[in-house]
Amino acid sequence: MVSLTTPLCDFGRPAADFLLPGTDGRQYSLADVRGPSGLLVMFICNHCPYVKAIRDRLVATCRELETYGIKSVAISSNDPSHYPEDDFEHMKAYAKAYGFSFPYLFDESQQVARAYGAVCTPDFFGFNADLRLQYRGRLDASGRQPAPADARRELFEAMKQIAMLGTGPQEQLPSIGCSIKWRDR
C-alpha cells in the first residue's frame, strides 16, 4: 500500500461535472449534489485504513455541515478488479452499514478522479457556493489511527468558513491516505 499526501489547494479551480451511479440506485450529477453554501467532494473507498480511521467522524461531520448549507458527496474510483472490497456491491453495503447521509458514487472509468486530480483516499475538495475550490486539506490529525477526540476539526472549520465567507483558510494541512488504485491503461 502506497501512502500519499494531497497537493496544495488550487484556490478558485472550478468543480468538474460528472454523472455517476449512486449506491441508492440513482444517477448523480454535480448539480444534484451541490448545496446552497457549497459542496464537499470526497474521494474514499471501503478498504483503506485511513478512511476506516475517520469514517464515523466523517459521517458526523457531513451531517453537521448540512446545517450550514454544505452538501457532501463521496466517490470511489478504485479499480475493484484488484480490490474486490471496493466493488459497487460492497459500496452499497458499506454506505448502508455506516449510515451515509450523502450519496456514495462509483467512478468506474476513473475519469472523475482524474478530472479532480484526486491522488489518495481520503482526498477532500471543499467548494464554495460558486463551486470554486477553497479547501484541499485533511479531516483532522488522523492517520491510520483516529486522532484524539479533542483533535481540531480542520475540515469542519474550513467548510463552515466557506459557507459563511465564501473563502477557505489560507493555511491547510494535506490529507494523507492510500493511493487511488488506478486501472492498468
TrEMBL record:
Residues 9-161 form the Thioredoxin domain. InterPro entries: AhpC/TSA, PRX-like1, Thioredoxin-like_sf, Thioredoxin_domain. Gene3D superfamilies: Glutaredoxin (3.40.30.10). SUPFAM superfamilies: Thioredoxin-like. It holds the Pfam family AhpC-TSA. This is Thioredoxin family protein. It comes from Chitinimonas lacunae. The lineage of its organism: Bacteria, Pseudomonadati, Pseudomonadota, Betaproteobacteria, Neisseriales.
